[in-house]
Each structure stands twice: as C-alpha cells, then as structure tokens.
Amino acid sequence: MQLTLWTYEGPPHVGAMRVATAMQGLHYVLHAPQGDTYADLLFTMIERRDRRPPVTYTTFQARDLGGDTAELFKDAAREAWERFRPQAMLVGASCTAELIQDDPGGLARALDLPVPVVPVELPAYQKKENWGASETFYQLVRVLAGPSVPPPGTPRAPRPAGARPRCNLLGPTALGFRHRDDLREVTRLLERLGVEVALVAPWGATPADLARLGEADFNVVLYPEIAALAARWLQRSFGQPMVTTVPIGVNATREFVAEVARLAGVDPAPALADESLRQTWYSRSVDSTYLTGKRVFVFGDATHALAAARVATEELGFTVVGLGSYSREFAREIRDAAKRYGVEPLITDDYLEVEAKVAAAQPELVLGTQMERHIAKRLGVPCAVISAPVHVQDFPARYSPQMGFEGANVLFDTWVHPLMMGLEEHLLGMFRDDFEFHEGAAPSHLANVVEFRRDPAPAAARPDATPIAAPAGAPAPATPAGRGATPVAAAPGGPDAVAGDGPPSWADDAEKELRKIPFFVRAKARRNTEKFAQERGVTRITVETIYDAKAHFSR
Amino acid sequence: MSTATTQGTSVGAAAACAEPRVIRERGQREVFCGLTGIVWLHRKIQDAFFLVVGSRTCAHLVQSAAGVMIFAEPRFATAIIEDRDLAGLADANAELDRVVDRLLERRPDIRLLFLVGSCPSEVIKLDLSRAAQRLSARFAPQVRILNYSGSGIETTFTQGEDACLAALVPAMPAAPALLPRSLLVVGCLADVVEDQFRRQFAALGVDAVDFLPPRRSGALPAVGPGTSFLLAQPFLAETARALEERGATRLPAPFPIGVEGTTGWLRAAADAWGVDAARFAAVTAPGIERARRALARPREQLEGKRIFFFPDSQLEVPLARFLAREIGMVPVEVGSPYLHRAHLAAELALLGPDVQLSEGQDVERQLDRCRAARPDMVVCGLGLANPLEAEGMTTKWSIELVFTPIQGYDQAADLAELFARPLVRRTRLVA
C-alpha cells in the first residue's frame, strides 16, 4: 500500500479515456462501478470539452455483484453500439471490475458486433495513466493497422518522384499538457519544411484513419510516454522510421528540424530561419543577466522534465539543482540526464518525497507540475508549470505551445515572469511592506510551516542566500520562537524580558522599521542586527542600529 | 446504456392521489460515489483525517472532486492498494498499519481518523472495522479510529456523509437518563448556518441543541432516549436509523430549505418543545420577512421557467419544492438517486402528486428526455454541464448546491440566486 496525498497520474483506464476522447468514431465501454464516471468531468471541466467523452460505464453496484455483472457488461456494450454506432469499440475494466474478472474482451467478442472490438487490459494495481494511454494507443494501432502490414521482409517502396514527403504526428491526446497548441506549432514547422502531415493520432483520428497509418513515409513521436510504443511497432511492421527528438526548446527544435529534413530528404533551412523566435535574443539581452546560475528544481513527466532541464541550462543559463520525474517507464533517461547535470535523479510518484527533495535543494525556481506549484508556494519559491497533471489553467484560451520556436518564446515568458516579480520585489520593495508579500500570506498550513522551520539549513540562514530563495517559513529557525512571526506583538514584553547574553531588545520604532523590510529577508536582517548589537554590547536596538548593522554587513 | 432495464421504465400511477409519479431506472448512473463527501466532511470536522483505502482511481477521484489541489496539505489521503496487497489479506492489514503509522506520525494534530472503504476494498473484503479496532487499541486515547464505506458499489455521492455520520453514532456518549430532553441537528451545515439555527432555537426556548457532526471530534454530543433529532439533510437514512437505535426520536419535518421548509423544520422542534404559536411567530417573523423580501428579485428572473433535475445529491426534491412553491419555477422532471419515502414525506406532500419524479438513472435515456423537454434550466453534475451548455441549454452544477450555505431563512435568496445566475449570465453575454 502506498500513502498518497496527491497523485501525479490517474489510473490506467483514464489514459485509455484520453486516447478514446481524442479520437472520433470510437466508443469505449468500461466495466466500472458507479462513481468512476467522475472521470468525465476531467474532460468537460478541466479541458472544457463541449462533448461527453465517448465512454459508457456499466456502473455496477453491490447488489449486482451477487448477480450477473457479465450480463450487465454485455447489455451495456450492445446498447452503446446501438446508440453510438462507432467505427470501432474499445472495451476494458477499471480497477474494481478487474477484481471481479468478467473478461470484457471475451464478452464483447461474444456479442459479435459488426465493427472491430479492441480489448485493452490495463492492470490497475500496477500501472498508471500514461502507461494506460500508451498501451491503449498501441493496441488500437495494432488491431486497426495490423491488416495492412506487409509480409516480413517486404522492402518499403520508395516515395514516388515529385511526391511530397509525408509523416504522421503521433501522441497528442485529450487532457494533454498543451497538446492542442503543440500540434499546431509542429504542423506549421513541418509545412515550412514542405513535409505534409498525413495523419495525426490519436488526436482527431478515426479508427479508419489508424488503419492507414502505414502509408506515411515516417512518424514523428511528439509524446514518447504515449506514442513511442506504437511508433516502434509501426517501425517494425511498416519499416517507417521515427523522429524521436521532442522539439521543446530552441536547440531541440533545431535538432528536430534537422532530423525531419534528413528523413524527408528536404532542406532544413526554411524552418530554421524563424523570424518569430525571440527567446535566444531575450536570453542574451542584458536584463537577463540576473538569470545566470539561478537554481532550478525540475520535476514532471519524463519528456517535459528532460526538455525543461535542457532549456534551463543551455538556453536560460540556469543551474539545475534537482531533476526528477514520476514517469517510471523513463527512469533510465532521467538518470542519464541527472548524471550530466551532476544531480541525484528523483524517480518517484510520492508527492511527499518530492516535497522533501525540493525543500532540501533550496531552489530559486521550481519547474514542475501543479503539485510542485503548491510545494513552491509553501516554500515561498517561484514556480512555473511545465507538465501534466493538468489543471484548468493549463488550457489557456490563447495560443501557448511548448514546442517549436514559438514554444521556446512561451517557455521564456512563463519561466522568467515569476522571477521578474522576485527582482521587482528585491529592488522596489526592499523597504516597503508589500500588501502581498507579508509573512502571513504564504503559509496557509501551519503544520507544515512548523515542519519546515525545523529544517536545519533553510536558505535564509546561509550568508550567501539570495533573498527570493528563503522559504516562507524560514524566519523562525535562528530567532526565538514566535519572534519571527509576530515581531510587533513580541516587542512590548521584549525589552524588559531580555537579560544577560540573551538577544538585545528592540525599540518600537526599530521593530516598525524592520517590518518595512520584505519578509523574506527580514529574518536575516533581524539576526544580523542582533548579532551586530550583541558584538558591540548594545542592549537596545534602535533604527540607527539597524542601519549601522546594514552598513557593517554590506561591506 | 440501460442495462438491467428488465424492470424497464415504469411510470407510477399518476391517478392515485398522494402517490407521486416516479420513473424508476437502472442504467448508467452519472453520479459521484460516497468518497466525494470527504471533500466537505474534512473541512467540517477540523481535527479529523480521512484515509481512503482504495485504488489509484479513488485517489484521483477525491483529488479531482476537490477541484484539483485546493488545499496544499489536505486532511485526506489514499492508501493505494497495489498488486502485492492483493496477494494475501494478512499482508494488506500489515500494510495498512504501516500507512497509518506514517500518517499519524506526520500529523500529530489528528484526533479522529476515518478508514474509508472503497469499491476495491469492499470487493476484496478487507475488513476495515477490524482494522479500526486493532489500530484504535494502539492509538487510543490520542486518536479515535473509525471506519465507514464510501464505495461506489454501496453509496451514491451524499450517502458517503450518511455512512460517515452513522459511523460516529456508536461513538457518541450516552445521555444521562435524568437529563432533560435535548435536540440534535443532524447533517453537515455551514458554520454560519449552524450559528443562525442555534440562535433561533435559543429564541424559541430550545436551549439544549447539539449538531452532528461537531466541529471538533472531541465534542461529540450525547444521545439517548431524551434526544429528539431533526435531519438537516435528506440523505441521512443510515444515520437516522443508528440514532433511533440509540433511543433518539426523529422529528418529522420538511428540510430547512426556503422559507416554507425552514419554518416547517423549526416548527417541528417548537411543537415538540411545546412552544406556543405566538412565540413561534414572533421568533420566525423577522427571518421570514427578510427572506420574502430578498426572494422577490430572483423570483422575477426565475418565475415560470422550466427546470429539469438530473439525480445527484438527494437534495433534488426539497430544492424542487422550494423553487416551485416560493419562486414559481416549473419542475419538468425531478431526478434523485434515491427517494427515501419516510424522510421525504413532508416534502413530497408539499411538492404535490403532479410533478414527474425519477429515481435511479439511465443517463442516456434521461438525456433524451431532457433534450425533448427543452427545459429553461438543467441541474446536473460536472460531467454533463458543459456538454449541455454546448447544446444550448442553461445548466446549474448540482455540486455547488452541496458546497454552499443554502439552508435557513437568510440563505433562501442566496439559493435562489444560484439558479438565477446562469440565466442572467446568458442574457448578459452577447458575443
């Protein structure tokens, strides 16, 4: 059993739903108890789809378990066929139905429906959402394109002279992180190369389309988590080469263009000269100097985490201080990359472990999922979201790809803007009590703040720490309990209570002055001032003492 | 799908005077399971933690129903059953103990831990009541450990709250026999609503009032033969039964929704306490007056509009009664996952025999009926709302009716506003 507060991935049948929902003319009959229909809202609410996912659930209840749940499944499948008349049906079980072992594949076959029925067995107690999507897509491709596979050893016919090179784009699904916009950006890139997109799948494809996948000259795998398995089968079966470079970031996009151009036998130049690319110049412009060496922690699905680490180091000049992924299937790739960046790879789907690792790494920016956004918020560290699991905010109304040159522009904006706020805060808010950046705003959950305060080496305690990296809960460790949190309240009792070697007392106006310093550097300022005062035998800190100390420490 | 429609779609005899017209269906039910109740229960009982013993699907459901990560450190979690747990039950119990150890170590502030059963734990017959006993022996008295089932095979949406509260009943202390009678209000209410009711009961002279669930688990009210209880929610069949087994008496009443429901609900207590009519009128008059005034505006927007309810929270009948009688809306079909005839008796009498009810669900057929009826407003779950909006219908998410303070006089207009807003929005948007 695994204790789970938040999950990075849903169960594998949700992966199957992402494939089915992305497609047209396919219907998924899912043997599942009442309640599993919650998955519909992922698509209708988070992605704001205007149609229900093409899924029929048997929604069996306890009273059905004594009876014939298999019959229930057959009725559901038959009625779904009659009502929706799909070109093909997908059948399977969710976690609970897996336990009652009704064999949806066998039951559906017995119905003798006039369309292909593709059974998918998705072991719910071992596997997760992306694996489910990958397996489902693979099974669909195998069953539907299988009949057109040439005999083994048949050489692939050369492309007719004068015909444009054609490729399939594989991997985009419903509920994917920016799949909608990536698809448009990559299609545009291929158009500039003169490469025609034969089919996109699963996004928008019908079962009949999948049957024609073998016709294209090569495949482009946009999301390896979902499409690598199917693409490898297509490569074996039809001799179709595959492009595996994921074009996230400028360098990866250039490599992607080169790879496509080579396979297509075309000139890469038209796609490489993209006048809309601004990221490279923005990164070199002087105002970006402060980005140099920013400590970033990267966590997400494998594809986005690997890409983000590369873009962060090569294109923004950051330093990767943590790299991890919840995609266990891609653990090797993550480990290899982590070695290059000199960090420990983190392969886990345990949110609590990620939280601990982020806190320990003391990053200045977190590039993660919506869950790392929460971790970062609690630590007072800026964060940009780079990967699923998706949130309604990950479906912006505007065009916002991650891939291609426009994607590189988007990455620059989304990663740098949270930091800009930090810089503004640093320069403008240094001696102003900002209405948002006060210590009461950040830690909404006391239990954790206490926990982080016990952390022996918070960023603020290190003399070289950049202010923005200070965890929100950091003021406390080096100061007496309660002081960091409520300096004004502590002040009245303070002066007389202090004696001997204890910290010096604070005059009221000095406390007020201290409060004008942004909270994330306030603890350090307090500590430094007290240290300065103690060293000089000053027992009562005034406004003058603060500035004397400031001058002393800024030497 | 409409499997198991062996009993088909039976329309109750409309002619029989008091017997409501009910379509009974068994097919695909587009409803949440009882685990969803954790989303509000964990906010209500502030030192309780809910540990679902289930699958990744359960964890994903609770996370998604909670609006995807609103609370950075939630007081709920899932012990996800894995393949090796399925190999043997002894193993699964040891694993559960380990998970609970880790959890309680991390959250020393927790005083009440619910082990919440799920579909997989029910199917593999993992005995959570024994696990709760075993763990209680180790962690009592610091932590009380109880269990209930929120599984989809046994509970529909709000029935999870019913199961949770029913699990609390045996833990309630026995009321001393000599104590004067007391009133127990049963069902989660927003704190603000609870406080309003407490003031109203006090004004009526009903002083000994407790609420179940309490805000802190240590404050479980006493129960005994001197306890009369009012249900604040229509989905508490098991809890009511458990309280009756402890000797408590249910005061039959409509539910405190709208002016009429609230008055009827308060009157049930007032009558039981022998409050005279003049005092009752004096206490309730200001609230009634305020509510009537506040309802005038939404009534203008909603009067005559036809409304269709998909089954969801079991609140549908009281809501339809309120909208029909106080706002002038016209219920086209009032679907509910389950119609508890006894608890709804007062509501059904007010709603009248002419309203089409439906119990259970076959979502595809119900959608057919809904499209054919073209109502002005559809009350439905989150899976159906956007698709129906895209078809041109105006919808109200039913889940919001469970998460919002809607009971009592001073919330009657807020409740009506929830229905008015989608219609008003339609008229505002011109793009």
Written account of the structure:
The complex is a heterodimer of chains A (555) and B (431). Chain A is of the alpha/beta class. Chain A has helices spanning 12-22, 39-46, 62-65, 69-84, 95-100, 104-111, 129-145, 179-193, 207-211, 224-238, 250-264, 269-272, 279-284, 302-315, 331-341, 351-361, 370-379, 404-428, 446-453, 487-490, 494-497, 508-515, 519-535, 543-553, and strands at 2-4, 26-31, 55-57, 88-93, 117-119, 166-170, 196-201, 218-221, 242-243, 295-300, 319-325, 345-347, 365-368, 383-385, 505-506, 540-541. In chain A, the strands form four sheets. Chain A has a five-stranded parallel beta sheet, with helices on both faces. A four-stranded parallel beta sheet of chain A has the order 3-2-4-5, with helices on both faces. In chain A, helix 10 links the parallel strand 8 (218-221) and strand 9. Chain A is globular. In chain B, helix 10 crosses helix 12 and helix 11 (277-302) runs parallel beside helix 17. The two termini of chain B are 37 Å apart. Mean pLDDT of chain B is 92; it is low at 1-17. Chain B has three domains: 9-30 and 293-430, Nitrogenase molybdenum iron protein domain (Rossmann fold, 3-Layer(aba) Sandwich), CATH 3.40.50; 34-155, Rossmann fold; 182-281, Nitrogenase molybdenum iron protein domain (Rossmann fold, 3-Layer(aba) Sandwich), CATH 3.40.50. In chain B, 53% of the residues are buried. Chain B is globular, with a radius of gyration of 22 Å. Chains A and B meet through strand 1, helix 2, helix 3, helix 4 and helix 5 of A and helix 2, strand 4, helix 3, helix 4 and helix 5 of B.
List the helices and strands and how they pair.
The complex is a heterodimer of chains A (555) and B (431).
Chain A: E1 2-4, H1 12-22, E2 26-31, H2 39-46, E3 55-57, H3 62-65, H4 69-84, E4 88-93, H5 95-100, H6 104-111, E5 117-119, H7 129-145, E6 166-170, H8 179-193, E7 196-201, H9 207-211, E8 218-221, H10 224-238, E9 242-243, H11 250-264, H12 269-272, H13 279-284, E10 295-300, H14 302-315, E11 319-325, H15 331-341, E12 345-347, H16 351-361, E13 365-368, H17 370-379, E14 383-385, H18 404-428, H19 446-453, H20 487-490, H21 494-497, E15 505-506, H22 508-515, H23 519-535, E16 540-541, H24 543-553
Parallel strand pairs in A: 2-3, 2-4, 4-5, 6-7, 6-8, 8-9, 10-11, 10-13, 11-12, 13-14, 15-16
Helix pairs in contact in A: 1-7, 4-6, 7-10, 8-18, 14-15, 16-17, 22-24, 23-24
Chain B: E1 10-11, E2 21-26, H1 38-44, E3 48-54, H2 56-65, E4 76-80, H3 83-87, H4 89-106, E5 112-117, H5 119-123, H6 128-139, E6 144-149, H7 159-168, E7 182-186, H8 191-204, E8 209-212, E9 227-231, H9 237-245, E10 249-250, H10 258-272, H11 277-302, E11 306-309, H12 316-327, E12 330-336, H13 345-351, E13 356-361, H14 363-373, E14 377-380, H15 382-390, E15 395-397, H16 399-403, H17 412-428
Parallel strand pairs in B: 2-13, 3-4, 3-5, 5-6, 7-8, 7-9, 9-10, 11-12, 11-14, 12-13, 14-15
Antiparallel strand pairs in B: 1-2
Helix pairs in contact in B: 7-9, 10-11, 10-12, 11-17, 12-13
